[in-house]
Structures are given as C-alpha cells and as structure tokens.
Amino acid sequence: MTALTVLEVGFAASTQDLGRPGFSEAGLGAAGAADRGSAALANRMVGNRPTAAVLEALLGSVVLRADGHVVAALTGAPGPVAVERADGRVHGAAIGEVLLLGPGDVLRVGLAESLLRTYLAVRGGLAVEPVLGSRSWDSLAGTGPSPVRAGDVLPVGVDADGWPLVDAVAPPLAPPSGGPVVLDVVAGPRDDWFRPDWRRTLTGQTWTTRPDSDRVGVRTTAPNALVRQRGGELPSEGVETGSLQVPPEGHPVLFLADHPVTGGYPVVGVLTAASVDRAAQLRPGDPLRFRLVG
Fold first, then answer.
1. 278: left (phi > 0), else alpha (psi -120 to 50), else beta?
2. Would you say the pTM of this structure is higher than 0.85?
C-alpha cells in the first residue's frame, strides 16, 4: 500500500475527517476538521469523497516523504511549499495546487505566513485506523488516532471518487488584511440572560483572540464584557459547534470542533458555518468583530 512517511512536525498535526457524530449521549463530541471548508476543498481537488481523512497541521510546518505515487493538495493557511524529487531536483509549489509526488519525493510545507491551520489531502485519503468510525483526533476527549509525529507512516487509502479536475484553485479564505475578521452570528438561544444592550457590546467593539485558544474553542477578550441580567447558572444543556458561550466574566468562548457536548454557561448566539471556518483560522492576538445576522 502507498504511504506517506512523516519526517518532521513543527507544531501539531492530526488526521481529521467529518468527525464521529452520534455519540453525544455518551458524552463524546463529533470532532473533525476545525476548518471544514478548507478540508473539503482539499479533498475535492484530489478527487476524494467528502469522508476522506486529511492531515490538519498547525501553522503548516510538516515534512513528508511519499513511498509511492501520490496525488496531493494543500489548502488553508498559506506558506512556502517545495517538492524535493528523489533525484535531487527541487520544485517550488503552492497552497491550492494539485501536486504529483513520486516514490521518494519529499513534500516540505513551511511555516504558515498567515492563518492558523493547513490541510493536506491525498487521493484516496489517509487510511489510519479509525476509532468509532472516524479517523479524527478529538483533543478534548483524547479519542481517535493519536496526533501525528515524526516517524509515523500514514497509509494512503481508496476513498476516492474520480480524478482531479483542476490544477489549482483560489484559497477560500483570504489572508487577513490587517483589519478585524468579521464573524456572522445568529442571536440566541440564551440571549435573554444578558442586559438589553448586549447587542451593542457584542458588535460595537473589536475583540481579540486569546493565546489559550485551541481546537475546543476560540477564547476572546475585549475592553467591555457582556453583562448578565440574571443570577445563578443554567443547568447543563447541549451546545453546538459555533456556539458563543459566555462565562461569568463576560468574554465569549467560540466553540470549535472539539467542544464539549454540554455546557452550563448561557449561549448568546451561534456562528454561521462559514464563520466557524474563519474562526478556526484565527491566530492568538488576531482582532475580530461580530456581526448579527438573521
């Protein structure tokens, strides 16, 4: 079987697919790719089915060697890319380009210049052993194939459904222009727990992504906090990806792929699917604004 051998991992990398929905009653979230749009695009570029597993790499920074003929594509956080051929030649490449690797070729993905997560798809998908029907690593539950490390061998599977139809595509997420990233939010379901001016507080200022953000959620801070008008706490209730949960200090936590299945803090709003993808690419210190829609 064709495989990729992992030579280097700079920060963190894991295999991800569409996740493992259906286990919430057991306290297990779905997990899956944090930026689903970028992961799905990478799979489409190489002719995979939507279920195929990809590699999600924090800030790029991975080096892999092909042990056979491999069709690959990179999306998400852009950075320098090069293919070192087995005969010693070096070819420059790019995010959003379909790459043809031969036996012994080395794919080098450098440090991402912007955004946070880079996705690598190979034709046929990464065929690591699934756990509960998914090849996704869930960092909160510690479930799924272990994070990828140097020395790992990633088998290439057969989860394809055609051949690549393009040579390259434009990135779905543009790098930040220097201004805040705008995230669309639908109000509710617990917005009545906050003072009537919560909309102005949420949308009328720039928030900052905190350094303790991760695949569980984007933690934010701003000069003005959301203030509750109710005392006490909610009984724990189900929460969805994109939920904007507000702890007592009033700075929202935006739930990403590895969020818990229940929470006891009120959810003031829920992000649209496209905005969840944008949020998954925020780096610590990045500014963001919320925009109410619907």
1. alpha
2. yes
- Is residue 8 packed enough to be buried (19+ CB in 10 Å), middle (13-18) or exposed (0-12)? middle
Q: Can you tell me the distance from the alpha carbon of 137 to that of 39, in angstroms, rounded to the nearest whole number?
A: 14
Q: Are 101 and 107 in contact (CB under 8 A)?
A: yes
How does pLDDT run across 26-67, given as a tens digit for each residue?
889 999 999 999 999 999 999 999 999 999 999 999 999 999
Residue 189, preceding peptide bond in cis (omega within 30° of 0): yes
Q: In terms of C-beta density within 10 A (0-12 exposed, 13-18 middle, 19 or more buried), how is residue 10 classed?
A: middle
List the beta strands (DSSP E) in 19-105: 54-58, 60-66, 70-76, 81-84, 90-93, 98-101
For residue 117, give the nearest of 152, 156, 79 by alpha carbon: 79
For the chain, where are the alpha helices, taking DSSP H only?
Answer: 36-45, 198-203, 273-280
Report pLDDT digits (tens) over 121-167: 999 999 999 999 999 999 999 999 999 999 999 999 998 988 888 88
State both tokens at 85: 């051929």
